[in-house]
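Researcher: Quick test of sequence recovery. Tokens follow.
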């Protein structure tokens, strides 16, 4: 394997992609006049230019040049229902017929709130937001005021929204709270540092599985150590389940048997509409009770009828607890097949994750933190992405794979075959297993 050979393979992939997508290129160049990089969401950009997606139906997407793709990214976990599910579309249309913005409490928000509290038993009360980012900001705000402290424990590689991202230190766009960044999946370090800083710590914020860093599951002993340490020092444990709540019938934390003080939600729970929520212990959430609490929480569209209707329809008619369990099992089976394929081919490549979320990595050995992925050659991820596009599969340039309800077994078989053809076609470029 040489750097020049990988560079040449990637240049060839760029050229084929550019030749095949003139309409997307024109759209990109036109939009760049009005938006920096023709972009309002950084994760969607990739070189030489991103595809412009024109429409979607079920688990299929079509780009501006008319190419059809099986959707294996599903709006970065928000699209569990696929595209334009009739049950959700009908619910939204019915809600809109009664008025879109009603300037008051409405008939739909209470039933969705009750449904979420019943589904995720650690949530005694909740409030809606417009995104998971907002939900995490409000959960942290609640913890700061409830405890009267200022420090927030987070973890390297954590991502909690557009203004709450962390490497070894906070990202440049991260809000300027007083953060203590600790290594992920290191129970000993977490216990020691939380005990050391205990009187200062308001909250411990963690994903039960880190999503954006590559689907890195939290080890049970690590997550349990956070629960015990937070309790010991009087801090609130906040589980960010914006992604992971879909990984088991009642959320990943519930499956692990660990109860957080606050939980944040987002993505799919709004039925494909803008959505977020934060909630948990009733005594903490009482801070936001306008009758008695000291904290105001605003947001014009927090209870908008389209999201309230879509969310309720999705959770009751499509993504029931039983459906969540079945989709998780389908994902576990796929990941096992992919890892067996990689092992049989003798390549240093694996898929990490839980249930219906997984990520491809060109590395062998256990992946317990983002630091274990530091040696991965990002060009190989790009080659995989463009290979999958050529095979009619739309995924993520970082190797992220997301299953949705409409995906068929035939499409999953097609994905496995595409990984096999990628390994076969790029064998000389891929790192070999020891």
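Model:
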């Amino acid at each position: 394997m040489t750097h020049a050979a990988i560079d040449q393979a990637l240049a060839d992939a760029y050229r084929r992609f550019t030749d095949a997508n003139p309409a997307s290129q024109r759209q990109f160049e036109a939009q760049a006049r009005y938006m920096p990089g023709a972009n309002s969401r950084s994760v969607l950009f990739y070189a030489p230019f991103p595809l412009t997606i024109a429409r979607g139906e079920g688990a299929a997407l079509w780009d501006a040049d008319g190419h059809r793709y099986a959707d294996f990214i599903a709006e970065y976990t928000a699209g569990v229902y696929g595209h334009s599910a009739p049950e959700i579309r009908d619910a939204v249309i019915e809600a809109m017929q009664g008025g879109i913005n009603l300037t008051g409490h409405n008939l739909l928000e209470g039933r969705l709130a009750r449904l979420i509290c019943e589904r995720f038993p650690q949530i005694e009360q909740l409030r809606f937001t417009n995104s998971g980012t907002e939900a995490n900001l409000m959960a942290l705000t609640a913890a700061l005021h409830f405890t009267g402290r200022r420090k927030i424990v987070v973890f390297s590689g954590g991502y909690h929204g557009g203004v709450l991202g962390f490497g070894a230190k906070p990202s440049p766009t991260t809000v300027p709270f007083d953060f203590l960044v600790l290594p992920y999946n290191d129970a000993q370090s977490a216990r020691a540092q939380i005990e050391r800083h205990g009187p200062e710590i308001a909250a411990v914020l963690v994903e039960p599985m880190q999503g954006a860093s590559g689907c890195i599951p939290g080890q049970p002993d690590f997550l349990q150590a956070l629960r015990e340490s937070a309790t010991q020092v009087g801090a609130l444990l906040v589980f960010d389940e914006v992604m992971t709540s879909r990984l088991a019938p009642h959320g990943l934390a519930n499956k692990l048997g660990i109860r957080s003080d606050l939980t944040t939600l987002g993505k799919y729970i709004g039925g494909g509409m803008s959505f977020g929520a934060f909630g948990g212990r009733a005594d903490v959430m009482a801070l936001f009770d306008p009758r008695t609490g000291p904290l105001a929480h605003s947001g014009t569209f927090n209870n908008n009828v389209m999201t309230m209707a879509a969310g309720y329809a999705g959770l009751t008619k499509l993504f029931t607890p039983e459906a969540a369990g079945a989709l998780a099992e389908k994902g576990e089976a796929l990941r096992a097949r992919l890892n067996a394929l990689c092992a049989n081919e003798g390549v240093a490549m694996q898929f990490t994750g839980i249930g219906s979320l997984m990520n491809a990595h060109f590395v062998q050995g256990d992946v317990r933190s983002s630091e274990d992925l530091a040696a991965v050659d990002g060009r190989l991820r790009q080659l995989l992405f463009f290979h999958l596009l050529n095979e009619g599969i739309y995924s993520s340039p970082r190797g992220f794979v997301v299953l949705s309800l409409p995906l068929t077994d035939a499409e999953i078989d097609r994905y496995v075959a595409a990984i096999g053809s990628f390994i076969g076609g790029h064998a000389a470029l891929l790192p070999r297993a020891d």
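The first helix runs from residue 3 to 20.
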